[in-house]
Design goal:
Layout (H helix, E strand, L loop, with lengths): L33 E3 L6 H16 L6 H10 L4 E6 L2 E11 L18 E9 L8 H13 L7 E6 L4 H6 L3 E10 L2 E9 L4 H5 L4
Parallel strand pairs: 4-5
Antiparallel strand pairs: 1-2, 2-3, 3-4, 5-7, 6-7
């Protein structure tokens, strides 16, 4: 069974009743809200959201366009996008890592034999921020990871002001991260993925 077929919560979520034509027949419309793994064809939309979200704050992006395409070709199953009426509004991109802590080498790499999911970036489109979408997307992503047999934990690095946000998502701080970007320093955080056998048995995984 593929990872995607085992995940009922990645199927489209209809938030509005379907529209009908004047004759009473249902028109085919895009789902009001849909969660799915990203593909290389989504790379430009991903980068546009990321660039607007990060450059104004830090002057750089966690992933550049070629790196986004790289990860969406290598490990699209470790990404998750939130689409509203066909438009990408939020996303997460991850890859696998095979060491206890993140290092500078972790930024561009995907280690297929790893058991830690390195979350490179979470970003929300500027028009839908302050609506809780980042928290909801992370919650769904962590549920998704629990259905992947190779995933043991999730790792990420963030600036200190974002630590409370990720703590509310269930992450714990591990201390200063070895990775730096220019003058920026980060806190490394982790979330256990295993230890949720009951949830997996009852989630369709």
């Amino acid at each position: 069974m593929s990872a995607l077929s085992a995940l009922p919560f990645l199927k489209p979520v209809h938030l509005r009743p379907p529209r009908s034509s004047p004759g009473g027949q249902r028109r085919h419309t895009l789902p009001a809200s849909e969660f799915r793994c990203l593909s290389p064809e989504d790379a430009v939309s991903v980068f546009e959201i990321e660039r607007e979200a990060f450059i104004s704050v830090s002057g750089d992006c966690p992933l550049h366009l070629d790196e986004i395409r790289h990860f969406l070709n290598l490990c699209p199953e470790l990404s998750l996008g939130w689409f509203e009426e066909g438009r990408l509004v939020a996303f997460i991109i991850g890859s696998l890592w095979d060491q206890e802590r993140l290092s500078q080498a972790a930024r561009p790499l995907h280690k297929p034999q790893g058991s830690a999911v390195h979350i490179h970036v979470l970003a929300v489109h500027r028009t839908v921020r302050q609506q809780g979408k980042g928290s909801i997307l992370m919650w769904r992503y962590l549920r998704y990871l629990r259905c992947l047999p190779f995933a043991r934990r999730a790792l990420l690095m963030c600036e200190r002001f974002l630590v409370p946000f990720y703590q509310k998502c269930g992450f714990e701080a591990l201390g200063p991260c070895e990775v730096t970007v220019g003058d920026l320093a980060f806190v490394e955080m982790q979330h256990p993925v295993r230890g949720h056998a009951f949830m997996r048995r009852n989630s369709g995984c």
